[in-house]
Queue: 2 jobs
Job 1
Amino acid sequence: MCGIVGVSGPEHAAELAFLGLYALQHRGQEAAGICAVEDGQARLRREDGLVMEGFDDAAMQELRGRVALGHTRYSTAGGEGLVNAQPIVVRYHSGELALVHNGNLTNAQSLREELVREGALFRATVDSEVIVHLIARSRRANPDEQVHEALSRLTGAFSLLITIGDTLYAARDPWGYRPLVLGRLPDGWVLASETCALDLVRAEFVREVEPGEVLKIQDGELIPLPGLGRAARVQPCIFELVYFARPDSKVWGETVDRARREFGRQLAREHPVEADCVFSVPDSSNSAALGFSEESGIPFELALIRNHYVGRTFIHPTQAGRDFRVRIKYNPVREVIEGKRVVVVDDSLVRGTTSQGLVSLIREAGAKEVHFRVASPPVRSPCFYGIDMPTREELIGARLSVEEIRRKLDVDSLGYLSLEGMLGAVNGGRPFCTACFSGDYEAPLVDLERGLPVQAHC
Ligand code: AMP
C-alpha cells in the first residue's frame, strides 16, 4: 500500500510530483520521498511523515529537473525507517537509477537469497531493492533490455516507475494487481497510482497502464517497449474499490464512489432491516452508506464525526495505538442517535477492533438498536499482493463465524455483502483478485511455499 507518481517533461517536474503525492497521501502516511533528475543526475529527499511536512519551499528548490518520481510509504511493523523509504536511488554502470514501487513481490526473498549468494549487498529490507539489483546485474546491452530482463524475473504485484538517467520507465505486473494510470500534460506526461493525482496537476487521463505493459518516456515521447506478457487471468485488486482508493478516483474503469454505492445498494438488498437512520464510518464508507440509504429508503445521517487531524486508525503500526485511536478519531452526535434504531455501514472488517470501539460509542450515545452492515465479504485471508493485512490469526473473519462476530461486536444484527453480490456490482462480473475474501491466490506465492519470511510492505 503505497502511492507512486512519475513526471516527465515540465520544467519543474518535482513540483508536480509533490502535488501528485499530496493527492495520494491516503495510500501511505509513514514517509514520503521525491527524487528529481536533471541532466541525468538524481537528487533525492525522503522524510518521515506526511508529504506536506517534509517538503518546504527550500527543499523543493533543490529538486530541479524535468523528470521526477514520488512515493508515499505505508509500512508495517518491522519495515519502518527511512532506510526503507523510496525512491531508492543508486548509481550503476548505465547511470543514475531511481525506483518507486507499489505492490508486493511474492518471490522477493528467493531472489534476494540468490543475489546475496552472488555477492550483492542490501541496505534495506524492502523487496523493491531486489529489483534495483536485478537491473544493475543484468548483462544486457542497454537500459531498456536490462529493465525488461529484471522485471521478467519478478512474481507478484508491482506497479513500478523507474528512471535511468533522464528516461522514465513505467510497468505493471502481468496480473495487474495494483493500479497505475497515464496522464497527459501540455508539456509532458504523468503516471500515478490514482486518477485523483492527475486531477490535481490538471493532467488529462489517457488510460491505465495495461497488465504486463512496459512503457518508456524519453525526450517527451511515449514509447511502448516489449511487455512482460499478460496473465491469462488478470487480477485487479477489488480491495482498491472497497477501501483503499479515493472515491473521486477512477480505478479499474470504475469511479470508486460509484462502485462503493453499488456495494451499499446490494448490501441493502441482501440484508434489509427496519431502522430509523443509516450512517457511515467516515470517510471510507460514506459512499457505501449512501448507497444503502438510497436502496433501502432509510434516511442517511451524519452520526459519527471524524476528527480529521488523526491519521487512519489502521495506518498506525502498533495495535495499542490503533485501539486508543478509535475514540480520538470518532465521536457520535448524540441527538442523531439517541433512542433510534440505527444502521452502521462500514466498508470492511479486518481485525474488528475499530468496529467494537465504534459500537460501544454508539451504544453509549443511546442507540435503541444497532445494526451493523459491512460493504464487503468477511476478510479471511492475508494479502500477499500489496494490501497490508494482518496475519490470518488476527483476522476476525477468519477466526469467528458471522454469528460469533455479531456477539463480539454486541450488535442486534450483522450483515456482510456476499462475494457474488460484490462482484456482480462492478463491471459486469469481470475478473478481480479477491484473495483476501476468497483465499484464491493467482500469482504463485513463491517465498511462502518455500517457507521463507514474507514481507508485506507496500
Ligand atoms: P479493523 O476491523 O479494526 O481492523 O478496522 C477495519 C477498518 O479499517 C475498515 O473499516 C477500513 O475502513 C479500514 N481498513 C480496512 N483494511 C485496511 C487496510 N488494509 N489498511 C488500513 N485500513 C484498513
Job 2
Amino acid sequence: MSTVWIVTEKPFSKAAVDGITKIVNAKGHEVKLLEKYTDPAQIYEAVADADALIVRSDLVTKEVLAHAPKLKIVVRAGAGYDNIDLQAATEKNIVVENTPGQNANAVAELVFGLMLLHARKNFTGAAGTELGGKKIGIQGYGAVGRHVARIASGFDMDVYTLAANPLRPRPADDVSEKAGVKYVDSLKELYQTCNYLSLHIPATAETKGSINYELLSNLPKNGVLVNTARAEVIDEAGLVKMFEKREDFAYLSDVAPKNKDLIAEKFPGRFFFTQKKAGAQTAEANNNAGLAAANQICSFFETGKSAFQVNK
Ligand code: 3PG
C-alpha cells in the first residue's frame, strides 16, 4: 500500500477530495490530506511518509523533497508547474507530472468574467461597453487560449493570436478555424491590433518580466490587459509606467502583482485583482484536475509509466 498526500493551501472541493480518495482507495492505496496550511514546516511533516503528492500552486521546493524520502511522484493538479523545483525532483528520481487542459475551461471563463466586470463599469449602473465586435488577442495559444478563442467567438469578438509555430503543430482539438481565429506575425502586431490582450503563457526564464512597457505601449486606446496566467510574466515597473503614461489603460488580473498596493493607491478604478487566485477554483475544474491526478498516480504505480511527465 502506498500513501498519497493531497497538500493544498487552497483546498479542492470536498467532492473532488472524495473522488480522489475513491480512485486511490480502489487501487489499495491510502490518501492523507493537508489543507490551508500556514507554514512550510507542516508540509515537511506531512510528506515524511508520502509515496505520491498531489498539489496545486503549492511550492514543492528542494526542502520539501528533502523531507520526503519515499516520494516517487508529484502531480501538479493543474497546468503550470513553475511551483515545483524540477531539477531537485529529477536529481532524486522523482517523476513530476501536470494535468494539462483539465482546468482550462474554468480559467477561460474567468477571463470573460473579468472583461465583463470592467466593460460594465463594475456593475455600478454607469454606461459601459460591449465585448461584441471588439478584438481580443490571445498570447499563449494552449489549452486555456483555445477555450478563450471558442468563448470569444460566442461573444462575436474578433480573435487574434500569433501565427502557428511550424515546430509545434496545432493540437487535434484546436478550435481556431471554427472560432475564426486570425493570425498575426509578431507580438507587437498582436498588441497593436487588439482591444483586449489575454495572457496564457507559462512563467519560464524566457517569459518572466517579458510583458514590459515597450510591449504594452502598443495597445490601442482603452486597451485592456487580462492576466489569468502568472504574476511573474509582468515587468512590474513597466506596468506602473504604462498606467502613468496611458490614462486609458486598464489591467485585470487573477494573479495580483507584488506592487498591488501602489497600483491601488495611484491608479484607482483602472484595475481589478481577484482576492485569491480563482481561475481554476470551480467544482468542475477541481474534479477534472483532482481526479486526473489520482488516475495518473495510480497508473504510474501500476505501470511505472507516466504520459504527463514534465521533468524528462
Ligand atoms: C494552473 O496552472 O493550473 C492554474 O494557474 C490554477 O492554479 P491553482 O490550482 O493554484 O488554482
